[in-house]
Amino acid sequence: MTVETSPLPKNKRPFFLRRGPMENIATALIALGFLMLFQPFALVLYTWSLVTLLAGTVMFIIVSKFPE
């Protein structure tokens, strides 16, 4: 009697080291920064909008260098 075992799956990278999901998160941060910048209601959101935009942009630049 022979027991067949399937090959082990390839080691996947952790979520925070995958290019696709992290690019989506960075894009969402950039979009959130724009929404915060152009909303007329809360000064706190306007105050933090540039920081959010820059964080998303820097994150996108870094993550776009990750391998597929």
UniProtKB/TrEMBL annotation:
Record keyword Transmembrane helix present: yes
Keywords: Membrane, Transmembrane, Transmembrane helix
UniProt name for this protein: Uncharacterized protein
Organism of this sequence: Rhizobium giardinii
Lineage of source species: Bacteria, Pseudomonadati, Pseudomonadota, Alphaproteobacteria, Hyphomicrobiales
Transmembrane segments annotated in the record for this chain: 21-39, 45-63
